[in-house]
Amino acid sequence: MTDTRLGGGAGAAPDAQVAGRPGPAGVGPVPRVPIGTRMSVFTRLFAIQASWNYELLMGTGIGFCVEPVLRLLPGGAHGAAYRDALARESRYFNAHPYLAAVAVGALARAELDGVPGDRIERFRTALCGPLGSVGDRLVWAGWLPVCSLLALAAFGLGAGAAVVLAIFLGAYNAGHLGLRAWGVDAGWRSGLRVAPALSGRLFRVGPGYLARTGAYLSGVALPIALGRVIGPGAERGPIVGVVAATVVGGALLVRMHGRAEGWRIAIVVLAAFVFYATVARHG
Q1: Which residues fall within 8 angstroms of residue 259, CB to CB, at 6 or more apart?
Q2: What are the distances in angstroms from CA 34 to CA 6, 66, 73?
């Protein structure tokens, strides 16, 4: 039987090249997988939460994403190695849905490298915390509010609904698609030594930069969006009230630092503008 393991030497499958890029220190050469397998893993990431449940959380989603690579294990999709690995990768797992791509890449590499099952299980458990906390700070508390404020600024500058929506979806999806692609590649290149990738500059200083960017955009977007909602010639009373509410709200956000999620704040602000615009129009 042809050995289909990546790194299996001369007996490797003809469509899988063994010699790959150099890996991080202490990690062997990065094996190459068929392009179809790589694309299958990446596209499955978009359904990683499709089977989310209170018992395994996204565990079955991890197994679903890793499964195309597991077919390259000895015996293929009908072998004992495939069944054991798939069962192991489908157990409990919880992380940020975008940074879970790091786990998918690293776990797939570990399985193909023949890492003992008990070591892989300990590694899976250790990944949950970092991938959850880093992802929440970078995406929910950083990138999502920034994209929302960009769209709000475009609205204030006179952009139509389609343009505002395109700006928000374009910016947000560019960020999360790039993060998923990077995550799979970083996990695949590093395997069990993926920790240094999660301590890179993006994750150390990125949330701080996004917080400052969000604060700047708030100062720009909120006044001009408010000006468009109220319109020219409006009475001073509502304007003063909204400005006062903005100041009080800003003070509350400072006091709640670290206790309020950015995406919730962004949704509340946008909902308030929609509500005010509706009342002002029909009032």
Answers
A1: none
A2: 10, 14, 14
**H-assigned helices in the chain:** 35-44, 59-70, 80-89, 100-112, 117-135, 144-156, 161-190, 195-198, 201-230, 236-255, 262-282
| pTM of structure | 0.75
Strand partners, 53: 57
Distance CA 1, CA 24 (A): 32
Q: Phi first, then psi: what are they for 150, rounded to 5°?
A: -60, -45
Listing DSSP states for 150-176 in one string gives HHHHHHHTT--HHHHHHHHHHHHHHHH
The per-residue pLDDT string of the chain (283 residues; one tens digit each, 9 = 90 and over) reads 333 333 333 333 333 433 345 555 455 677 778 999 999 999 999 999 999 999 999 999 999 999 999 999 999 899 999 999 999 999 999 999 999 999 999 999 999 999 999 999 999 999 999 999 999 999 998 999 999 999 999 998 989 889 999 999 999 999 999 999 999 999 999 999 998 888 888 888 888 899 889 888 888 888 888 778 777 655 555 555 555 555 556 555 556 555 555 556 666 666 666 666 666 555 5
How far is 170 from 154, CA to CA, in rounded Å?
13
What is the residue type of 147?
Answer: C
